[in-house]
Amino acid sequence: MRKLALIILPILILAGCTQKSVYIPKSYRVKETPDEEKEKEKRGAAIVTAGETENKTNFSVPLDKVFAAALESVQFLQWPVAFAEQQDGTIRLQEAYVYEKNGKLFRTYTWPSSSDTKSSNINYYLEKVGKYSPGSSVTHFTQENLKVTVKKVSDTTTEVKIDYYIHPYAFEGTIGYEVMSNGYIEAIIIDHMKDILGAKPIAMEK
């Protein structure tokens, strides 16, 4: 998995870090009925899966070591940390925006300009990180948030919960709801934590 991570990370070029992360609540999501999805498919529009995006993993390692491993692992993504507090077990990354320009992917931390995104098409990126089938729609950029919560289960067991939110924007404006993560980014974090801790997860749910 580390080799896989190294393939994608060099193309996610950092382009600034001035805006702090904003957590998107679950209530923001809008789910579509099966009939609505079928109708969109007929029109050639994007089909996405919205809903629960939390990934939970338990490690048989004390909390302080797991928190340190989680902090190091999110930094491995080359995505700046906005907030980290071991006392409440929270790590929050800066709110990010991903778009394509001149054939390269950029991750920035301020709202991208129309000139930067007018020719951007990141459907292939969304298919890599989310449950997304683009159809004939073109996604120009995403607004993304990632939060890690580390929680003590017992003296020897610690839970790690990862919330990764992807909000796509099309040329006409927002698509209207959040794309559900497919676990790709979360797996990079967890696999890196496993390497640091030298321990396999004792339970995982998605």
Report on this model:
By secondary structure, the protein is of the alpha+beta class. The protein has one domain (about 1-205). It is built from six helices and twelve strands. Strands 1, 3, 4, 5, 6, 7, 9, 10, 11 and 12 form a ten-stranded mixed β-sheet that branches. The model is unreliable at about 1-35 and about 40-50 (pLDDT under 50).
Give helix % range. 25-40%
Q: Shape, please?
A: elongated
Structural class, from secondary structure content? alpha+beta
When the domains are counted, the total is: 1
Number of strands: 12
pLDDT averaged residue by residue: 76
Series of H and E elements: HEHEEHEEEEHHEEEEHE
Catalogue the unreliable spans.
1-34, 39-52
Tell me the span between the first and last alpha carbons: 18 Å
Q: What is Rg?
A: 17 Å
Number of helices: 6
Give the amount of beta strand, in percent.
Answer: 25-35%
Largest sheet: 10 strands, mixed
Describe this protein with a few key phrases:
12 strands, alpha+beta, 31% strand, 206 residues, 6 helices, ten-stranded mixed beta sheet, two-stranded antiparallel sheet, disordered N terminus
What is the gist of this entry?
This protein has helices spanning 2-8, 34-42, 63-75, 114-117, 123-129, 184-197; strands at residues 13-14, 47-48, 54-59, 81-85, 90-93, 96-101, 104-108, 132-133, 139-152, 158-170, 173-174, 203-205.
